[in-house]
Amino acid sequence: MGDNKRPKSNWAQIASAWLAIVGFAIIGAQVNQLRTNAREAAARQVYMSYSEAQLRHPDLTEPDMAEIRADRLKWVLYKNFVAHMLFAYDEIFAVYDHAEWHRSFEQEVKYHMDYICSDMTPEDDATYFAKMRAALVALRKSCPAKPAKS
């Protein structure tokens, strides 16, 4: 009976525990990667939808604001077009916050500054994520001063 000595530590149990920990870490990394891939795919899809809208409505891409404001239906379509553009870039900035995307945004948004400065309110910005809200605040700094109301 005295020859039945048990080892002080069971190396197999320790190795199993470490393998389980490593396995859970790998699963966690895969879940995180899947989440990232899904967010990137969604952002690309929204941006592609906006790109298609640009092709369908070149008159809204570089708008004639006097003509658009004169036609109620065209005005509503234009407001939605700009909201779509801002939403697309909002999604892109959430996953690809790169200088190239910001330059692209600056190139496209310049055609819509009249609307952003005159018709959008800072309260409208609340529908966007923080990076887009910050971009809109920065854009509004270049808006011409509004005449004082008497």
Structural class: mainly alpha
Mean pLDDT across the residues is 89
**Unreliable parts:** none
Biggest sheet details: none
Q: From N to C, what is the helix and strand string?
A: HHHHHHH
Strand content: under 5%
Overall body shape? elongated
The percentage helix is: over 70%
Distance between the termini: 105 Å
Could you tell me the number of beta strands? 0
> What is the rounded Rg?
27 Å
Count of helices? 7
Any key phrases for this structure?
single chain; 150 residues; 7 helices; elongated; 72% helix; mainly alpha
Tell me what you see in this structure:
By secondary structure, the protein is mainly α. It contains 7 helices and no strands. The chain has helices at residues 11-56, 58-61, 65-70, 72-95, 99-109, 113-118, 130-140. α1 packs antiparallel against α4 (72-95) and α4 packs antiparallel against α5. The longest helix is centred in the N-terminal third of the chain and has 46 residues, at 11-56. The chain is elongated and about 95 Å long. The termini are far apart. The relative contact order is 0.08.
